Amino acid sequence: MLYQTEPATGTPVALMILQWVLFLLQIGLLLGGIYLAFMRKDAKSLRRDLVRRFGYYAIALGGLGLLLGAATISNTGVFASPFWLYGLAVIELGVAGYATYVARVQYPQMVSEAAANRSTGAARPKPAPAVKKVAPSAPSQPTPPPEPPRTARRDARRDRKRKSR
């Protein structure tokens, strides 16, 4: 079975199966990147930004893998060689290693720095104290509130009520 070849291309069947598996993984990576970048909600802004950034990486690599996988499987010119998908898989493993490094080493440091900034107040500048304007010297007697404007209709209704009492 391992040494059987596909008649149209002469590619061993085992390599064709591996190409299809890698192609399907590229589709999953693209869909996972779309979810992480655009649909996932997170209350913590630091984690939200980090996950969104890795979602964009996944979209880029998944889209490139989708194009290369389709070209490899369909035997399109230079891209007929499975080398392209294997090279891309190695690059994706490198990005996965970097993501693991960021999640296990850098992210806890970022969280502790953010917590330290929050506790010292360095993250948010404090607003300037509000200056109250002091009114000029007030008269000794308070002024009565202004009367609302009167209309003829209102006066007529008031007069009618007074007469009926």
Kindly list the characteristics that best describe this protein.
single chain; 0% strand; mainly alpha; 4 helices; 65% helix; 165 residues
Question: What are the SSEs and their pairings?
Answer:
Elements: H1 13-39, H2 45-73, H3 83-120, H4 152-164
Produce a short descriptive summary.
This protein is 65% helix and 0% strand. The chain has a domain of 108 residues.
Explain how this protein is built.
- The protein is mainly α and about 160 residues long.
- It has a domain at about 15-120.
- Helix content is about 65%, strand content about 0%.
- It has four helices and no strands.
- α1 (about 15-40) packs antiparallel against α2 and α2 (about 45-75) runs antiparallel to α3 (about 85-120).
- The longest helix is centred in the middle third of the chain and has 38 residues, at about 85-120.
- The N and C termini lie far apart (about 110 Å).
- The model has no long low-confidence stretch (mean pLDDT about 80).
